TrEMBL record:
Residues 1-154 form the N-acetyltransferase domain. GO terms for molecular function: aminoglycoside N-acetyltransferase activity. Homohexamer; trimer of dimers. InterPro entries: Acetyltransf_17 (IPR041380), Acetyltransferase_Eis (IPR051554), Acyl_CoA_acyltransferase (IPR016181), Eis_dom (IPR025559), GNAT_dom (IPR000182), NAcTrfase_Eis (IPR022902), SCP2_sterol-bd_dom_sf (IPR036527). This is UPF0256 protein. The active site is at 124 (proton donor), 407 (proton acceptor).
Length: 407
């Protein structure tokens, strides 16, 4: 079997192989080649697994994203995608061969980490990825949607001079792109949405051209600073694809707008951060029912010292981390020293404070998973009293990481 890079001429076989791996059939693209998730594939970053007789049996790809780290630091982050193996060739090492080839290639490009969304949680930990951000779906019955405080009295309320305008998806693509880009640059864990995604309508709503209503929030100067993409289906249920806001006040204004919609029985907010205050803002705390509390973005560190010295830090301290990377057959022990928001990370032979797998380091890297949780779960081994507590303080970011982009 050969793992080889693809070209534009391989697009059809790549798409066909990927869909066959998941038992599906490709959708037809809209006029101009967009409107389907695979229209944004970067064929110079994709791989095919090919048998000796020339049959394609596996695929793996990557998008060119930026990831926002704690401290509002932006770094290139290949978004691994389209990993699939035909049912006839599974459990024969095809996926492992592709992932090992891909990680080697990413390192050769100088990448310090990679990210993905895991179709199955059991698969990607063995390749060194760990869940790093989490998301929820909240369902609020319309008759329980009253807020605890009247409009404009809460501390998180938008100014009365702000406004909300209702548009259709086809009318506001540029606004969506600009507001999302402003949001993701300040949100740890968020990934970029390249212009070509918006231009091609690749992905899920509101990136795709699927019909949606868009509630656009504007500040006192009329500048868009938030939006909510939604549709109304059966029941009737108002389903919010995503709510993007530069701060909690804008989110609250958009949530009020949606929850006050007439002729719907419930409002479903998708992609809500687990620590979002919306549940606390409602008069009935139990009104917002949590569904699909799940992982979202997974992180894989490719260069541990570079990754640790690149992100921002908010507590001073010193830890010795003993990091095992069994998939790549590597092991390293590093002294992490943080002073005044900057980190230094160098190899050391000192006794470790924590021993952990590279996948666990990926989980704690953005600050969304407490190291002490993984110590209690048996993933991380703490070698001295207080090491886990210090690690919690060190790795915590200025705000919880969250990613809602689907790729």
């Amino acid at each position: 079997m050969e793992i080889r890079p693809t070209t534009d001429q391989d697009l059809e076989v790549f798409v066909d192989t990927l869909h066959a791996a998941f038992g599906r059939f490709p959708e037809s693209p809209t006029e101009g080649g967009g409107g389907v998730f695979w229209s944004a594939f970067e064929m110079d970053r994709n791989l095919l697994a090919v048998t000796a007789d020339g049959r394609s049996v596996g695929t793996a790809g990557a998008y060119s994203f930026e990831l926002t780290l704690p401290g509002e630091i932006l770094v290139p982050a290949p978004g691994v995608t389209a990993v699939g193996v035909l049912p006839s060739h599974r459990r024969q090492g095809v996926a492992s061969a592709m992932m090992r080839h891909q990680l080697t290639e990413l390192r050769a490009r100088g990448e310090l980490l990679s990210v993905l969304l895991a179709s199955e949680a059991l698969i990607y930990r063995r390749f060194g990825y760990g869940p790093a951000t989490y998301t929820q779906r909240l369902t609020v019955p319309r008759h329980q949607a009253a807020f605890a405080l009247p409009r404009a009295r809460g501390t998180g309320e938008a100014p009365a001079t702000s406004s909300i305008e209702l548009l259709r998806r086809a009318e506001c693509g540029e606004i969506l792109e600009e507001v999302y880009d402003r949001y993701r640059r300040a949100q740890p864990g968020a990934v970029s949405r390249p212009h070509r995604w918006w231009a091609l309508g690749a992905g899920q709503p509101p990136v795709s051209p699927a019909p949606r209503y868009i509630a656009v929030h504007r500040d006192a100067d009329g500048v868009p600073d938030g939006y909510a993409s939604y549709s109304i289906g059966e029941s009737p249920t108002l389903t919010v694809d995503e709510t993007i806001a530069i701060d909690d006040a804008v989110y609250t204004a958009l949530a009020r707008f949606l929850l006050e919609h007439d002729l719907v029985t419930q409002v479903v907010f998708q992609q809500v951060p687990p620590d979002h205050p919306l549940r606390w803002q409602l008069a009935d705390f139990r009104a917002a029912q949590v569904n699909d509390d799940t992982d979202w973005l997974w992180v894989r560190l490719l260069d541990v010292p570079r990754a640790l010295t690149t992100r921002g830090w908010f507590t001073d301290g010193e830890l010795v981390l003993d990091v095992d990377d069994p998939f790549l057959g590597e092991h390293g022990r590093y002294l992490l020293t943080v002073r005044d928001g900057k980190a230094d990370c160098v190899p050391t032979d000192r006794e470790p404070d924590l021993s952990l797998d590279v996948s666990d380091l990926g989980s704690v890297y953005l600050g969304g998973t407490a190291p002490s949780t993984l110590v209690r779960a048996g993933h991380i081994r703490a070698h001295r009293l207080g090491a886990a507590t210090l690690a919690d303080a060190l790795f915590r970011g200025e705000r919880s990481p969250h990613c809602l982009h689907w790729f």
